[in-house]
Amino acid sequence: MTVVLNLIWLVFAGFWMAIAYAVAALICFLLIVTIPFGIAAWRNASYALWPFGRKLVRKPGAGVGSAIGNVLWFLFAGWWLALGHVVTGVLLCLTIIGIPLGIASFKMVPVALFPLGREIVPSGDPWFPSVSRTA
Known about the structure:
There is one protein chain. This protein is mainly alpha-helical and 135 residues long. The chain has one domain. It has helices at 2-30, 35-49, 64-92, 99-107, 109-113, and strands at residues 54-58, 118-122. Strands 1-2 form a two-stranded antiparallel sheet. Helix 1 runs antiparallel to helix 2 (35-49) and helix 3 (64-92) runs antiparallel to helix 4. The longest helix has 29 residues, at 2-30.
């Protein structure tokens, strides 16, 4: 079922949102100081392309640097990407088949706003049974 959802997502929302994240990543890579933001944007592009069957968890070692970076990301790129997820989610929820995809788009808003200090893991992975994990 996740493959079917991912394919439908890819056609209707994933490709466009992945392009938006890739553009943000490219801009961040061009400005040398913002390369960590580019890496996070690239990671989010892969997640936006194929989200079902994976989930985001907080990194246990993320600290003040991630928090400061997230504030900068929010100001310069995060709210634009989050707005894209909200608009996409609303448009997807207009159809019955699109409701699960719209909900998935809404679930991606927090990671669009604050991507640093998170990692993508398979949702069925026994090593990552919950959102909080120990090292």
